[in-house]
Design brief:
Blueprint (H helix, E strand, L loop, with lengths): L4 H26 L5 H8 L22 E2 L5 H4 L7 H14 L16 H7 L3 E2 L2
Parallel strand pairs: 1-2
Length: 127
């Protein structure tokens, strides 16, 4: 079966678009998404901010480390992007299946996606 020149060109274009789309998808999975507040602040970095009376620059808080096997639901809620329902699901999972053996076991909890795990992983420990 012979293809015409335009068919070959169309086939090559479709193959290129497919490969480009797959590459973009994998790139986006590995890229950490910044919260909108951070993106907005970085857009105006270096611009003077009016300082009122008594205002002092705040130092960023150091991230707290939470023990997955000992933290209460209230402590887990302090993790970024974790609310009451998800914190309770973590506690329920721990009660049902026993202590976490690895931090990645958190991915088995309903509501914890890979992207969410990547955002909170640095704040977790098992000790």
């Amino acid at each position: 079966m012979k293809m015409a020149k335009t068919e070959k060109l169309a086939f090559a274009l479709l193959a290129f678009l497919l490969i480009t789309g797959l590459a973009a998808k994998f790139y986006r999975l590995n890229k950490e998404v910044l919260p909108a507040k951070t993106v907005f602040q970085s857009a105006f970095k270096g611009k003077a901010k009016p300082e009122g009376k008594g205002s002092s620059p705040k130092e960023p808080e150091a991230p707290k480390i939470f023990n997955l096997n000992a933290a209460s639901a209230q402590e887990l809620e302090k993790l970024p992007y974790i609310g009451k329902p998800t914190a309770q699901k973590i506690i329920d999972y721990r009660s049902t299946h026993g202590p976490f053996k690895d931090k990645t076991d958190l991915l088995r909890v309903d509501g914890i996606s890979i992207s969410l795990y990547k955002k909170i992983e640095s704040s977790l420990t098992l000790q």
